[in-house]
Amino acid sequence: MKKIILLVFFSSSLFSQISSKKIENWILKNNQLDGSVVSIALKRIDKEKKVVGLGTDIYMTPASNVKILTVLGSIYYGDSIPIINYKVYNDTLKISPTGYPLLLHPKYIDKDLENFLKKFKHIVYHAPKIDLEKYGPGWAWDDYNNYYQAERSEMPIYGNVIQAVKKLNGDIEITPDKFKTVIDFEQKKQIYRSEIENNFSVNPSLFKIGDTIYSPFITSRKNTISLLENALGKKVEFNKEELKDYNVLNSGDVDNIYSAILKDSDNLISESIAANISFRLKDTISVDKGVKLIKSLSKQIELFDGSGLSRYNLVTPQSIISSLYDIYNLIGFERIKKIFPENYIIQNKKDFVWGKTGTLKNNHNYSGYIITDKNRIYIFSIMINHFTNDLSKIKEAIVDFLIYLKSNS
Q1: Model pTM?
Q2: Edge-to-edge, what's the strand order for the sheet holding 247-250?
Q3: Terminal C-alpha separation, the chain
Q4: Which residues are within 8 A (CB) of 87 and not within 5 positions of it... i.e. 6 or more apart?
Q5: Residue ranges per structural domain of the chain
Q6: Hey, which of 91, 142, 223, 281 would disulfide with 121, CB 3.0 to 4.6 Å?
Q7: Distance separating alpha carbons of residues 223 and 154, to the nearest angstrom
Q8: What would the CATH number be for the domain defined by 3-60+316-407?
Q9: What is the pLDDT of residues 31-63, one digit of tens each?
């Protein structure tokens, strides 16, 4: 039997078309949701009515819906992402990191910092203030070999991963090629890293031509500086003293970063932006401090990271709705359409819904914005936790509800 924990409606004018009873009946009739904890929250964007409904303070596992909160935090706290702190002295560039995540990133091309660094003959890397753990609370310890759990660091470089590509001639090209890599035709993974060392093994027989596979490397300040030297072709001197009286180089395209977080659900970039928020306000690169700042923007959230990897995270659908509403008021709908992915898994329809998924085993959520057939804009949060059905069936149920909402509001 389904457990209907939360059915929230934010506008009394909605009841004449989609009432709480109609939504409840829809859920009860949907066999794909049997055994699930189901939460559906709605708010018409142009209405200021008080929240009404049942169980609005029930906490759910958000997974990557947390990224909505992180993006809100970045927008709210300035909507300007500092890339690097710097000070120029003759032909020497003194730098201090900010947690910015796109330096030499293999998937997201952003040349601003790289081109800036290449202008100078000498570079001095000053130690920043940090309060940073490589992994967040509640992360899976044995996922260290997967791209989605790349280590946090003060200055991510190459996305803190190595990239392995099988070329047309059959060779495996590794970038960066700094770490020890061996060929092993016996191993069962395409690429594998030792848990405690930056030693990688690759099985070329498991690659198809053109395959691109990523594996995180173990980060350290020494590794970062060494990789930076190799990339720039110049010596990078380390100075343990804090850089003072500096200038700030800011990102010229923050929406490129927000899109990586919301469209591709990139965890390291999201974690790095949480740390960057802390840097902006607290002068310290810290996910924990960034998360506290993000938490202060909304009630009813228990947050432990900036990406949603942690199973300790808990939010109420009300807090997700509130965050989406704040994003709308801060940046407007046209920019929302630019940074949020559209149409979920729905094909062959004109764009009408923009939202963020959130998935951990037995939990799937989808929250965002929808334009109905009557040209009304609603914010919604659909949270389905503790299901045992196939994920594909849960997604089909969400599609069914989105179409239902589009046609009946």
Answers
A1: 0.94
A2: 236-239, 122-126, 92-97, 82-89, 247-250
A3: 28
A4: 93, 94, 243, 245, 246, 247
A5: 3-60+316-407, 80-250+263-284
A6: 91
A7: 12
A8: 3.30.450
A9: 888 888 888 888 888 877 654 334 467 899 999
